[in-house]
Specification:
Blueprint: E1 18-21, E2 33-35, E3 40-43, H1 48-58, E4 64-67, H2 75-78, E5 80-81, E6 85-89, H3 94-103, E7 109-113, H4 120-123, E8 124-126, E9 130-133, H5 139-149, E10 152-155, H6 164-167, E11 168-170, E12 175-177, H7 183-193, E13 197-199, H8 209-212, E14 213-215, E15 220-223, H9 228-237, H10 265-283
Parallel strand pairs: 1-15, 3-4, 6-7, 9-10, 12-13
Antiparallel strand pairs: 2-3, 5-6, 8-9, 11-12, 14-15
């Protein structure tokens, strides 16, 4: 398994990149992990390589917590969170809930949600400012998402799919959505989220982005089958390869300002068109 072997404490932010990783032979790493600007969750299992990659990249900055939900390993698909909080389904055991509260930073609120659509990670996608939710989510759950995570909530679909958490991944810097999302829908989503978006894939053409990719404002992990072109798209739209040494003192990468200057919009659009064309050429 290829990875940066240098100590995370010596890494500079200009070296940020998307890292390929597998979990017990599976490329769907978003099923067994959850990544935010304040913490990372990984499932309990036997894949030491998987855990060591996360810890080498993240442990110097945020806690990497091993956890289970209802005794199962699919922590990425049944939880949703950001730097302010973490929501877990009502099937979460009392010991599992207490473990999460003990392991996560004090500033992170952990709350159990009584929701019929219990795969919260499939039904909700969020960053530190905005959340997209399944159109059939309970009103009470929508209020909990807004209160605990401190976000604006929008009921939305991605390319006609109500499982917004499965078909998009976005951070405070940018996002990637289902490859067949229309230009009009892409513009509407970008307007809601106030970040640049691009249509793309992971794991050599998979449109289930939430299962193959996890990311925060300064790191990303994707399945081992993800192609170089797909990684270039991911790194570009999530701004993982930006040179920001000049503002190290002023800008905490884990709590970035919302949105982007209007003067960057044309450049982002041109870059997005170029990368989208390259991606389509490669996948098709």
């Amino acid at each position: 398994l290829e990875r940066n072997r240098r100590s995370p404490r010596r890494r500079r932010r200009t070296e940020r990149m998307a890292v390929r990783v597998q979990f017990e032979g599976s490329n769907e790493i978003g099923v067994v992990s959850r990544l935010t600007n304040a913490y990372a969750l990984t499932c309990v299992g036997t894949s030491e390589n998987f855990y060591s990659v996360f810890e080498s990249e993240l442990a110097a900055h945020i806690p990497v917590v091993h956890a289970s939900i209802a005794g199962c390993r699919f922590v990425g698909r049944v939880t949703v969170g950001n730097r302010r909080g973490l929501l877990v389904p009502n099937t979460t055991g009392d010991q599992e809930l207490q473990h999460l509260r003990n392991a996560l930073p004090d500033s992170v609120v952990v709350q159990r949600v009584d929701e019929r659509l219990s795969a919260l990670g499939n039904c909700i996608a969020c960053n530190d400012h905005v959340a997209l939710v399944h159109t059939d989510l309970d009103r009470e759950t929508e209020d909990i998402v807004a209160d605990v995570l401190g976000v604006e909530v929008f009921r939305q679909t991605i390319c006609g799919n109500a499982l917004v958490g499965s078909y998009c991944v976005f951070t405070n810097q940018g996002g990637i959505v289902h490859p067949r999302t229309s230009v009009d829908d892409l513009d509407e989503l970008a307007s809601l989220l106030q970040v640049p978006l691009i249509a793309g894939t992971v794991n050599r053409g998979s449109d289930v982005l939430g299962a193959g990719l996890v990311a925060n404002d300064w790191a990303a992990f994707c399945g081992y089958d993800t192609t170089s072109t797909e990684i270039n798209v991911i790194e570009s739209v999530l701004k993982l390869n930006d040179d920001d040494d000049d503002d190290d003192e002023d800008d905490d990468p884990r709590v970035p300002p919302r949105g982007r200057p209007a003067t960057d919009a044309a450049g982002d659009a041109a870059k997005g068109d170029h990368l989208r064309d390259a991606l389509i050429d490669t996948v098709v």
